[in-house]
């Protein structure tokens, strides 16, 4: 009997089999590890296991120190407003070409002005509602008190 | 020499799966969020690679939108995690189980 | 008004609408009206009568009317005869038959309303508002039934008629007997109507139409099917027509109180006598026979169905007449006579004597209404005593009542020249003619003929016991007086009972060769008719051979002589036995037969046994089956569902990481299924 | 004024009005921070949603999106990024109606709440997203609209900052939502990879012509489509992306539950209808990925309706029962997508759209009634609701209408829409076993649903109250919204024919 081995043509093979297999493996591995460790590990629940490790010293408190809430607020505002600038970027790239192609200024500039205006409304609102207020003066505290 | 597009896809798949792994195993809400961001960035890799492959800019533009929206999502997510901490004294996503079944 | 387009026929709906309006008015305002609502009823029925007469005149002038008023639903189902779609409508069909019946019904209803003034109002009854409202609804239902142009509409009003009679029979609902009589009437007729309903559905499913008249009617469709030799639901067309016809006949037998569904009618005497008059003469009971006449074209297609109708009719005529012989209550006698007379009508229709049947229906309506109203007058006279043995000698004290009652009795007994003679004779002649070729019909004829004797006997027994001889009680010594409201209807009906027979003097016409059989011309469409619904059309369809003894004239004379002779013989027997000053209870001499007759052939007993001895255990068994097996399955299903529910909701563990895992797991499951089916992994 | 005179972009007016309303609300709050002028804020939101509704109805009546000489045809905006047709307007109407009801009801529900302006502006922003989603015709705009819907929703669910249930609900909703949108975006990227385009009609053109390398990327495209389905399933709360729904609906303020379960679900479905009818023509797509994508929807529909109804059957908490019932109804509507492969599938889709409209009224009403109960503070379980009808017969009568309508009991409009769905499905299922199975599942699940819906009606009307109650307050806004929803549920009966025709026509126009 003659068996002919044909070298499998890699380019003809569906590339996405590999991708699918990878996806599968990528999911199976964590699940498998979780399953194996679940089966193997002895379960001895103990509070000290979950305690914070401080170089063998007895821990003196939680791992987290509370920051002032305003710290996060400002950070959040920064993230949001900072990232919005990525939307300015493609506009900036296309702006000169648009003007060169005799697109009216209103159509070239208008949408971006509108966009910025909306952002400004948001910023104004955040400002007015005190989101950017790092600390309050005693007078403000007084007026806030009902 | 350009890299074939399928390698980008492999890369993005890998990033996506890592993100998914994080989503499934991390109990810390912040890490959960980061894992999701990883998945979004996997999509961005795809988009940019394919934009290059197809020779149009649509994908790149969409990637920019994805980034902006991801940022917004993070902002909302962090806000929710803050109130979560205030109410449950923890950012472990498996702790709040008052509602089930 | 719609009258513009179709002439006087545009007013046709008003015939039924008048009593309906009266019903509503009486129901709402009756308490405040003078006479407690009698007036709206009288006005409405008078209006109906006027419009009916106009219709009658219009038909006489060569018109006919068939229109659809309202389509309330339609379906797209294809029937057995490949008719696409079916429409259920309310429509009006006015042809000679319905025009005649409309006049009869509205006339009797009017007279009953008037009589009620004397019978109910004058006697100080309570609940009159309810009485008149129900009477109005009753009249409305019957009139709408009469001009219905399709079987389903007929069925609906047929049921409404049944409901109204239930309400009216149970009018004195505080007594013990009235409600039970009402229930009995309702249940027995409903039992028959059950078959009727199945019949309607069967006809609708077979022919895709329920119309009575025209090209689109189920009658035409059935005729075509028989001609084409179509197979319907696995039967050949004629058999299927017989089956559906007999199913519808179930409703007819129930309503017209034919054997074996006749048991409710005597009990229905528990209602006010006026109601009995209406039920017996023009509405409830007449509805059954009218339905047969209405769809006669359908029955005509099936000799089997006709023979069954004829035989049941003949048997019932005799059967009921024998029972009437031994009754002591004047209304009971009349009740059995009604059953018997409707037997004649069925006999007449069953032998293809469409004219004879309708003729007798008309005459009977007049003389039976007369007799009942007369009996009502007697009851007033007797201070609400109904036992004939307590009466006697009323002849001189109440001449109007006596003579009108006598006219009715003569008509009922079939004494020449009163109306009953002519129609009964015609029925019997038709039966004889067919019977000479068909032994089954001959047997039916024989029974009908024999019943004539009993009819004559019990009729005059009743007359003699009531009016002749010496008064046998204090009430009979000093009768109550009756007013005009009683006398006027009696006189009107008395006249009609006497002369109505001249509408169709068939024997005379035969002898004199004169064209005086007006009713036959009428029903034959000589004046105006819907095509296909004529006596001739029917006569051609009916497959019976007719024979004669000697010549047709001889046969006719023989038949007439026989029936008249027997009637006179019956009357004479009654005369010898009861027309004496102090009649005695001869019936007791009958011995065992008397007990059987008195117990109505144990009909009630066997029906009660059927209900209690047979149906009840069956129902219990079914109930047990339901309780254990069916409920068990149902409860099991629900338990399993609820248990399943309890499991299913545990998926929702409350831990968001598990959700993410399940979500991804579910997604990968979908991916695998889709990938497997799409061959991505191959 | 004729529609014709307006510039094309004005066709998006229903969505733009909502966006403007949100900005106005922000401005009001900027001018007077922490305003508690509830009438002004709620009134602005209601006015905005009602004008959006009015414009959408006007456009529909004027014939925007309808073909024919006297009509305006489908309006294309920004090179096909948006499209305003009958489908879009139909869903804009649903969304605007639900938004109006919810904002009216919130007037009383939020009586003592600190963040009034934020609440209303977030609701209106989310509604803007939904409205835009109805008109989106490109995966870019769809994704933006999706996020514009989702992000305010997360915040709205968690807006009761001191209520652990609300926060937990917000967290779960957010986490599952973030995961789902990541999956969705990845799906978008794969579809883009396979076709080189994000605009729906161009995707369809590429698939049909088989240009470029698309034929070799079947697996990629298939995975992408499946991931898109995942995103849709999240928005519509369909299995297996439904896990957020029971908790989010239970924990959120009741008007928000109503909003999410009606409007947000409708938006999810318009997204599905749009994407799958426009971008992935069945034959071409099947040729490339080797499998019929309607099959996925068939599986999802069966599993979703079964899981939803089964889990609802033994719930003790009324709001949670409604949450699961809302999952069950998503299953019914998914049938509209599952049947697209059959002849007459467009009719099934139209029937599903009709069911969504009816569902919008009855489900919103039901959740708002729960809001009313929370306002009264009577408790959350079935027992707590016992005998409420004695104290509040009108509201409980309305609730009975909602329940029977949801269960599909004649003569309520819920019955007719479900019946329409069923008959169209049976008609389409002539030679398709999958659809017959779907029809059977629909019937079985409807029967089961009657059990738990009638259980609530029984509690309200028949059971004796556990404890004596004082007179219950009658908050104007909540009452008005509940009664309005009930009236609409009933009024839809006579109007059922024309509205159903409109839905069927809109569906046919998109599928054709």
Automatic annotation (TrEMBL), chain B:
InterPro entries: NADH_UbQ_OxRdtase_chain4L/K (IPR001133), NUOK/Mnh_C1-like (IPR039428)
Main location: membrane
Highest taxon of the lineage: Archaea
Keyword Secreted: no
Keywords assigned: Membrane, Oxidoreductase, Transmembrane, Transmembrane helix, Transport
TM region(s), chain numbering: 6-24, 31-55, 61-85
GO cellular component: NADH dehydrogenase complex
EC number: 1.6.5.11
GO biological process, one term: ATP synthesis coupled electron transport
Membrane topology recorded in Swiss-Prot or TrEMBL: Multi-pass membrane protein
An example molecular function term from Gene Ontology annotations: oxidoreductase activity, acting on NAD(P)H
Entry-linked Pfam families: Oxidored_q2 (PF00420)
Cell location: Membrane
PANTHER family in alphabetical order: NADH-UBIQUINONE OXIDOREDUCTASE CHAIN 4L, NADH-UBIQUINONE OXIDOREDUCTASE SUBUNIT ND4L
Alphabetical list of HAMAP family matching this protein: NDH1_NuoK (MF_01456)
Annotated family: Belongs to the complex I subunit 4L family.
Name of the protein described by the UniProt record: NADH-quinone oxidoreductase subunit NuoK
Automatic annotation (TrEMBL), chain C:
Residue ranges annotated for the NADH-Ubiquinone oxidoreductase (complex I) chain 5 N-terminal domain, each copy included: 83-132
GO biological processes: ATP synthesis coupled electron transport; electron transport coupled proton transport
Membrane topology: Multi-pass membrane protein
MF terms in GO: NADH dehydrogenase (ubiquinone) activity; NADH dehydrogenase activity
Subcellular location(s) of the protein: Membrane
InterPro entries recorded: NADHpl_OxRdtase_5_subgr, ND/Mrp_TM, NU5C-like, Proton_antipo_N
Pfam family, one: Proton_antipo_N
Keyword Transmembrane: yes
One GO cellular component, as annotated: membrane
Domain NADH:quinone oxidoreductase/Mrp antiporter transmembrane: from-to ranges: 148-442
Protein name: Proton-translocating NADH-quinone oxidoreductase, chain L
UniProtKB/TrEMBL annotation, chain D:
Transmembrane segments: 6-28, 40-67, 87-107, 119-136, 142-161, 173-194, 214-234, 255-276, 288-310, 322-342, 348-373, 394-413, 433-453, 477-496
Keyword Transmembrane helix: yes
NADH:quinone oxidoreductase/Mrp antiporter transmembrane domain mapped to chain residues: 136-440
Gene Ontology MF annotations: NADH dehydrogenase (ubiquinone) activity
UniProt keyword terms in alphabetical order: Membrane, Transmembrane, Transmembrane helix
HAMAP family: NDH1_NuoN_1
PANTHER family: NADH DEHYDROGENASE (PTHR22773)
Main location group: membrane
Highest taxon above the source species: Archaea
Taxonomic path: Archaea, Methanobacteriati, Methanobacteriota, Stenosarchaea group, Halobacteria
Entries under InterPro entries matching the protein: NADH-Q_OxRdtase_suN/2 (IPR010096), ND/Mrp_TM (IPR001750)
Topology term for the membrane: Multi-pass membrane protein
UniProt name for this protein: NADH-quinone oxidoreductase subunit 2
Location relative to the cell: Membrane
GO terms, biological process: ATP synthesis coupled electron transport
CC annotations in GO: membrane
